[in-house]
Specification:
Layout lengths: L29 H11 L11 E4 L6 H12 L6 E6 L6 H11 L10 H12 L4 E6 L6 H12 L4 E7 L3 H4 L3 H7 L2 E4 L5 H15 L7 H11 L3 H18 L6 H20 L4 H11 L4 E2 H15 L6 H13 L3 E5 L7 E5 L2
Parallel strand pairs: 1-4, 1-5, 2-3, 3-4
Antiparallel strand pairs: 6-8, 7-8
Protein backbone atom coordinates (compact mmCIF):
# COMPACT_ATOMS: atom_id res chain seq x y z
CA UNK A 1 0.00 0.00 0.00
CA UNK A 2 1.39 3.37 -0.98
CA UNK A 3 1.81 6.20 1.59
CA UNK A 4 -0.99 8.13 -0.13
CA UNK A 5 -3.50 5.27 -0.19
CA UNK A 6 -5.57 6.63 2.67
CA UNK A 7 -5.92 9.95 0.84
CA UNK A 8 -7.50 8.33 -2.22
CA UNK A 9 -11.25 8.90 -2.41
CA UNK A 10 -13.82 7.24 -4.62
CA UNK A 11 -16.73 9.11 -3.03
CA UNK A 12 -17.09 12.60 -4.46
CA UNK A 13 -20.38 13.54 -2.75
CA UNK A 14 -20.94 11.87 0.64
CA UNK A 15 -24.25 13.70 1.10
CA UNK A 16 -25.80 11.77 -1.82
CA UNK A 17 -25.27 8.55 0.16
CA UNK A 18 -26.72 9.90 3.41
CA UNK A 19 -30.06 8.82 4.84
CA UNK A 20 -31.40 12.40 4.80
CA UNK A 21 -30.72 12.93 1.08
CA UNK A 22 -33.86 13.43 -1.02
CA UNK A 23 -33.22 12.63 -4.71
CA UNK A 24 -34.75 14.67 -7.49
CA UNK A 25 -36.10 11.47 -9.03
CA UNK A 26 -38.05 8.93 -6.94
CA UNK A 27 -38.05 5.56 -8.67
CA UNK A 28 -41.02 3.13 -8.64
CA UNK A 29 -43.18 5.22 -6.30
CA UNK A 30 -45.34 7.18 -8.75
CA UNK A 31 -48.68 6.00 -7.36
CA UNK A 32 -47.68 6.73 -3.76
CA UNK A 33 -46.48 10.21 -4.74
CA UNK A 34 -49.79 10.89 -6.51
CA UNK A 35 -51.85 9.68 -3.53
CA UNK A 36 -49.93 11.73 -0.99
CA UNK A 37 -50.01 14.81 -3.24
CA UNK A 38 -53.79 14.43 -3.47
CA UNK A 39 -54.00 14.29 0.33
CA UNK A 40 -52.05 17.54 0.69
CA UNK A 41 -53.59 19.41 -2.26
CA UNK A 42 -56.51 20.91 -0.24
CA UNK A 43 -53.88 22.87 1.68
CA UNK A 44 -53.09 24.79 -1.49
CA UNK A 45 -56.66 26.13 -1.37
CA UNK A 46 -56.31 26.95 2.35
CA UNK A 47 -58.40 23.93 3.34
CA UNK A 48 -57.63 21.19 5.84
CA UNK A 49 -55.38 18.51 4.29
CA UNK A 50 -56.37 14.86 4.31
CA UNK A 51 -54.46 12.83 6.89
CA UNK A 52 -52.25 10.06 5.46
CA UNK A 53 -50.88 6.81 6.90
CA UNK A 54 -47.83 5.61 4.96
CA UNK A 55 -46.96 2.01 5.78
CA UNK A 56 -44.52 -0.60 4.55
CA UNK A 57 -41.28 -2.36 5.52
CA UNK A 58 -38.05 -0.49 6.28
CA UNK A 59 -36.37 1.05 3.26
CA UNK A 60 -39.46 1.04 1.06
CA UNK A 61 -39.34 4.80 0.47
CA UNK A 62 -41.98 6.12 2.90
CA UNK A 63 -39.95 8.91 4.49
CA UNK A 64 -38.26 9.77 1.21
CA UNK A 65 -41.61 10.16 -0.56
CA UNK A 66 -43.01 12.31 2.27
CA UNK A 67 -40.01 14.65 2.13
CA UNK A 68 -40.05 14.67 -1.68
CA UNK A 69 -43.74 15.60 -1.97
CA UNK A 70 -43.35 18.41 0.56
CA UNK A 71 -40.26 19.73 -1.23
CA UNK A 72 -42.05 19.65 -4.58
CA UNK A 73 -45.03 21.57 -3.19
CA UNK A 74 -42.80 24.16 -1.55
CA UNK A 75 -41.10 24.93 -4.84
CA UNK A 76 -44.27 26.78 -5.86
CA UNK A 77 -46.16 27.34 -2.60
CA UNK A 78 -45.35 28.08 1.02
CA UNK A 79 -46.73 25.20 3.06
CA UNK A 80 -45.83 25.21 6.72
CA UNK A 81 -44.62 21.86 7.95
CA UNK A 82 -42.51 20.10 10.57
CA UNK A 83 -40.90 16.67 10.72
CA UNK A 84 -40.80 14.64 13.97
CA UNK A 85 -39.19 11.23 14.46
CA UNK A 86 -41.34 9.60 17.13
CA UNK A 87 -38.48 7.30 18.04
CA UNK A 88 -36.87 10.34 19.67
CA UNK A 89 -40.13 12.05 20.66
CA UNK A 90 -42.54 9.29 21.75
CA UNK A 91 -45.12 11.32 23.71
CA UNK A 92 -47.64 14.05 22.93
CA UNK A 93 -45.77 16.40 25.26
CA UNK A 94 -42.37 15.81 23.60
CA UNK A 95 -43.85 16.16 20.10
CA UNK A 96 -45.51 19.46 20.96
CA UNK A 97 -42.34 20.66 22.65
CA UNK A 98 -40.24 19.82 19.58
CA UNK A 99 -42.70 21.44 17.15
CA UNK A 100 -42.82 24.52 19.37
CA UNK A 101 -39.04 24.80 19.15
CA UNK A 102 -39.07 24.42 15.37
CA UNK A 103 -41.68 27.09 14.77
CA UNK A 104 -40.54 29.20 17.74
CA UNK A 105 -43.93 29.05 19.34
CA UNK A 106 -43.35 28.64 23.06
CA UNK A 107 -40.70 29.27 25.67
CA UNK A 108 -39.36 26.46 27.86
CA UNK A 109 -41.12 27.89 30.91
CA UNK A 110 -44.48 26.46 29.80
CA UNK A 111 -44.64 22.85 30.99
CA UNK A 112 -48.29 21.80 30.62
CA UNK A 113 -49.22 19.52 27.71
CA UNK A 114 -52.69 21.08 27.61
CA UNK A 115 -51.25 24.59 27.35
CA UNK A 116 -48.81 23.54 24.61
CA UNK A 117 -51.63 21.87 22.67
CA UNK A 118 -53.85 24.93 22.97
CA UNK A 119 -51.03 27.25 21.84
CA UNK A 120 -50.23 25.00 18.91
CA UNK A 121 -53.91 24.84 17.91
CA UNK A 122 -54.10 28.63 17.92
CA UNK A 123 -50.82 28.94 15.99
CA UNK A 124 -52.05 26.59 13.27
CA UNK A 125 -55.43 28.28 13.08
CA UNK A 126 -57.16 27.85 9.77
CA UNK A 127 -53.94 28.16 7.78
CA UNK A 128 -52.76 24.68 6.71
CA UNK A 129 -49.86 23.04 8.52
CA UNK A 130 -48.38 19.59 7.78
CA UNK A 131 -46.91 17.53 10.60
CA UNK A 132 -44.91 14.43 9.64
CA UNK A 133 -44.83 11.81 12.41
CA UNK A 134 -42.22 9.30 11.35
CA UNK A 135 -41.98 5.91 13.11
CA UNK A 136 -45.35 6.47 14.79
CA UNK A 137 -45.61 2.71 15.31
CA UNK A 138 -42.67 2.85 17.74
CA UNK A 139 -44.87 4.77 20.18
CA UNK A 140 -46.69 2.78 22.86
CA UNK A 141 -50.34 2.14 21.84
CA UNK A 142 -51.88 4.21 24.65
CA UNK A 143 -49.69 7.21 23.85
CA UNK A 144 -50.22 6.74 20.10
CA UNK A 145 -53.98 7.02 20.65
CA UNK A 146 -53.51 10.20 22.68
CA UNK A 147 -51.23 11.77 20.07
CA UNK A 148 -53.46 11.07 17.08
CA UNK A 149 -56.73 11.92 18.84
CA UNK A 150 -55.40 15.24 20.10
CA UNK A 151 -53.70 16.34 16.89
CA UNK A 152 -56.00 15.05 14.15
CA UNK A 153 -58.89 17.27 15.23
CA UNK A 154 -56.94 20.53 14.95
CA UNK A 155 -58.41 22.64 12.11
CA UNK A 156 -55.88 23.24 9.36
CA UNK A 157 -53.50 20.49 10.54
CA UNK A 158 -52.69 17.58 8.25
CA UNK A 159 -50.85 14.54 9.60
CA UNK A 160 -48.52 12.31 7.61
CA UNK A 161 -47.93 9.26 9.77
CA UNK A 162 -45.19 6.82 8.75
CA UNK A 163 -45.25 3.26 10.07
CA UNK A 164 -43.78 -0.14 9.34
CA UNK A 165 -47.16 -1.84 9.01
CA UNK A 166 -50.91 -1.39 8.75
CA UNK A 167 -51.55 -3.26 11.98
CA UNK A 168 -50.40 -0.34 14.13
CA UNK A 169 -53.24 1.68 12.59
CA UNK A 170 -55.81 -1.11 12.88
CA UNK A 171 -55.32 -1.46 16.65
CA UNK A 172 -56.07 2.21 17.29
CA UNK A 173 -59.15 2.90 19.40
CA UNK A 174 -62.34 3.27 17.35
CA UNK A 175 -62.82 6.88 18.46
CA UNK A 176 -59.30 7.69 17.26
CA UNK A 177 -59.74 6.00 13.88
CA UNK A 178 -63.06 7.79 13.42
CA UNK A 179 -61.58 11.24 14.06
CA UNK A 180 -58.23 10.56 12.35
CA UNK A 181 -59.64 8.78 9.26
CA UNK A 182 -56.44 8.83 7.14
CA UNK A 183 -55.77 7.75 3.59
CA UNK A 184 -53.83 4.47 3.84
CA UNK A 185 -50.93 4.36 1.38
CA UNK A 186 -49.00 1.11 1.07
CA UNK A 187 -45.30 0.82 0.20
CA UNK A 188 -44.09 -2.60 -0.88
CA UNK A 189 -40.42 -3.70 -0.87
CA UNK A 190 -38.41 -2.76 -3.94
CA UNK A 191 -37.50 -5.49 -6.40
CA UNK A 192 -33.83 -6.36 -6.92
CA UNK A 193 -34.00 -4.68 -10.31
CA UNK A 194 -35.46 -1.47 -8.86
CA UNK A 195 -32.84 -1.42 -6.11
CA UNK A 196 -30.06 -1.84 -8.67
CA UNK A 197 -31.31 1.21 -10.58
CA UNK A 198 -31.64 3.21 -7.34
CA UNK A 199 -28.08 2.33 -6.32
CA UNK A 200 -26.85 3.10 -9.82
CA UNK A 201 -28.43 6.58 -9.74
CA UNK A 202 -26.92 7.29 -6.32
CA UNK A 203 -23.58 5.98 -7.53
CA UNK A 204 -23.61 8.37 -10.48
CA UNK A 205 -24.12 11.27 -8.07
CA UNK A 206 -21.75 10.17 -5.32
CA UNK A 207 -18.91 8.12 -6.80
CA UNK A 208 -16.01 8.50 -9.15
CA UNK A 209 -16.76 7.22 -12.64
CA UNK A 210 -16.41 3.44 -12.98
CA UNK A 211 -15.75 3.01 -9.24
CA UNK A 212 -18.59 0.49 -8.96
CA UNK A 213 -19.54 -2.11 -11.57
CA UNK A 214 -23.08 -3.13 -12.45
CA UNK A 215 -22.37 -6.58 -11.05
CA UNK A 216 -21.41 -5.08 -7.68
CA UNK A 217 -24.60 -3.00 -7.62
CA UNK A 218 -26.65 -6.14 -8.33
CA UNK A 219 -24.91 -7.94 -5.47
CA UNK A 220 -25.74 -5.09 -3.07
CA UNK A 221 -29.38 -5.08 -4.23
CA UNK A 222 -29.71 -8.83 -3.76
CA UNK A 223 -28.33 -8.67 -0.23
CA UNK A 224 -30.62 -5.76 0.73
CA UNK A 225 -33.79 -7.77 -0.01
CA UNK A 226 -35.98 -4.84 -1.02
CA UNK A 227 -34.62 -2.37 1.55
CA UNK A 228 -33.31 0.73 -0.26
CA UNK A 229 -32.01 2.31 2.95
CA UNK A 230 -29.93 -0.78 3.71
CA UNK A 231 -28.70 -0.98 0.11
CA UNK A 232 -27.48 2.63 0.06
CA UNK A 233 -25.95 2.27 3.52
CA UNK A 234 -24.14 -0.88 2.35
CA UNK A 235 -22.84 1.01 -0.68
CA UNK A 236 -21.68 3.89 1.52
CA UNK A 237 -19.87 1.68 4.05
CA UNK A 238 -18.36 -0.48 1.30
CA UNK A 239 -16.88 2.68 -0.21
CA UNK A 240 -15.33 3.53 3.14
CA UNK A 241 -13.64 0.13 3.31
CA UNK A 242 -12.41 0.51 -0.26
CA UNK A 243 -10.98 3.95 0.48
CA UNK A 244 -9.15 2.66 3.55
CA UNK A 245 -7.43 0.11 1.33
CA UNK A 246 -6.66 2.75 -1.26
CA UNK A 247 -8.72 0.87 -3.85
CA UNK A 248 -10.09 2.63 -6.91
CA UNK A 249 -12.85 0.05 -7.30
CA UNK A 250 -15.50 -1.58 -5.10
CA UNK A 251 -15.11 -5.36 -5.07
CA UNK A 252 -16.92 -8.32 -3.47
CA UNK A 253 -14.91 -8.12 -0.24
CA UNK A 254 -15.85 -4.49 0.31
CA UNK A 255 -19.53 -5.28 -0.30
CA UNK A 256 -19.52 -8.14 2.22
CA UNK A 257 -17.85 -5.91 4.81
CA UNK A 258 -20.30 -3.10 4.10
CA UNK A 259 -23.29 -5.41 4.27
CA UNK A 260 -22.17 -6.94 7.56
CA UNK A 261 -21.65 -3.54 9.14
CA UNK A 262 -24.96 -2.22 7.79
CA UNK A 263 -26.76 -5.19 9.38
CA UNK A 264 -25.10 -4.50 12.71
CA UNK A 265 -26.11 -0.85 12.63
CA UNK A 266 -29.68 -1.75 11.64
CA UNK A 267 -29.95 -4.19 14.56
CA UNK A 268 -28.63 -1.63 17.04
CA UNK A 269 -31.00 1.04 15.72
CA UNK A 270 -34.06 -1.24 15.79
CA UNK A 271 -33.32 -2.72 19.21
CA UNK A 272 -32.93 0.78 20.59
CA UNK A 273 -36.71 1.27 20.51
CA UNK A 274 -37.56 -2.12 21.99
CA UNK A 275 -37.78 -3.29 25.59
CA UNK A 276 -35.04 -4.91 27.65
CA UNK A 277 -36.79 -8.25 27.20
CA UNK A 278 -36.73 -7.89 23.40
CA UNK A 279 -33.02 -7.16 23.62
CA UNK A 280 -32.42 -10.15 25.89
CA UNK A 281 -34.27 -12.52 23.55
CA UNK A 282 -32.28 -11.20 20.61
CA UNK A 283 -29.05 -11.64 22.57
CA UNK A 284 -29.95 -15.26 23.41
CA UNK A 285 -30.83 -16.14 19.81
CA UNK A 286 -27.66 -14.44 18.59
CA UNK A 287 -25.59 -16.71 20.84
CA UNK A 288 -26.90 -19.90 19.18
CA UNK A 289 -26.92 -21.32 15.66
CA UNK A 290 -30.49 -22.71 15.71
CA UNK A 291 -32.68 -22.46 18.78
CA UNK A 292 -35.97 -24.29 19.31
CA UNK A 293 -38.72 -22.15 20.83
CA UNK A 294 -38.93 -24.37 23.93
CA UNK A 295 -35.19 -24.19 24.48
CA UNK A 296 -35.22 -20.42 24.03
CA UNK A 297 -38.03 -20.08 26.58
CA UNK A 298 -36.12 -22.12 29.18
CA UNK A 299 -32.88 -20.24 28.48
CA UNK A 300 -34.76 -16.96 28.80
CA UNK A 301 -36.19 -17.91 32.20
CA UNK A 302 -32.75 -19.03 33.44
CA UNK A 303 -31.16 -15.77 32.30
CA UNK A 304 -33.90 -13.67 33.90
CA UNK A 305 -33.33 -15.44 37.23
CA UNK A 306 -29.58 -14.96 36.96
CA UNK A 307 -29.98 -11.23 36.19
CA UNK A 308 -32.75 -10.56 38.67
CA UNK A 309 -35.28 -9.69 35.96
CA UNK A 310 -38.99 -10.44 36.19
CA UNK A 311 -39.78 -12.65 33.16
CA UNK A 312 -42.63 -11.96 30.79
CA UNK A 313 -45.47 -14.49 30.42
CA UNK A 314 -45.19 -17.28 27.87
CA UNK A 315 -47.94 -15.76 25.75
CA UNK A 316 -46.12 -12.42 25.76
CA UNK A 317 -42.94 -14.31 24.85
CA UNK A 318 -44.55 -15.38 21.56
CA UNK A 319 -45.69 -11.81 20.88
CA UNK A 320 -42.16 -10.51 21.51
CA UNK A 321 -40.57 -13.09 19.22
CA UNK A 322 -43.06 -12.21 16.48
CA UNK A 323 -42.03 -8.56 16.90
CA UNK A 324 -38.35 -9.46 16.45
CA UNK A 325 -39.28 -11.40 13.31
CA UNK A 326 -41.40 -8.51 12.00
CA UNK A 327 -38.55 -6.06 12.59
CA UNK A 328 -36.25 -8.26 10.46
CA UNK A 329 -33.92 -9.14 13.32
CA UNK A 330 -34.75 -12.83 13.71
CA UNK A 331 -36.15 -15.59 11.52
CA UNK A 332 -38.57 -18.20 12.83
CA UNK A 333 -39.62 -21.27 10.87
CA UNK A 334 -41.66 -24.33 11.78
CA UNK A 335 -39.49 -27.11 13.22
CA UNK A 336 -39.77 -30.55 11.53
CA UNK A 337 -41.10 -32.10 14.73
CA UNK A 338 -44.52 -32.61 16.26
CA UNK A 339 -46.23 -29.66 17.92
CA UNK A 340 -46.13 -25.88 17.51
CA UNK A 341 -42.37 -25.60 17.68
CA UNK A 342 -40.30 -23.01 15.81
CA UNK A 343 -36.61 -22.67 15.10
CA UNK A 344 -35.19 -19.21 15.71
CA UNK A 345 -31.95 -17.74 14.41
CA UNK A 346 -30.49 -14.35 13.69
CA UNK A 347 -31.46 -12.97 10.29
CA UNK A 348 -28.38 -12.63 8.11
Amino acid sequence: MSPNSYHRRIVTDREALSESYVPTIILARDSQIRELTTCLSPALEHKKPIHAWLYGPPGSGKTCVARYVLSQINQHHTLRHAYINCWNYPTLYSILDKVAQEIRLLGPEIQSTAVKLDKFRKAVGAKPFILVLDEIDKVLPKERNAILYSLSGIPGLGLICIAGNRQSFCILEDRVKSRFNPKLIEFKPYSDKELTVICSLRGELALEAEACSQGTLKEISRLAEGDARCAIQTLNIACQYAEREGSRLLVHTHVKQGWSRACELKAVYTLGALSDHHKLLYELVKGKTDLLSGDLWRLYLETCRARGMKPIAMRTFSVYMNRLIREGLVTGKRAPIRGKVRIFKIRK
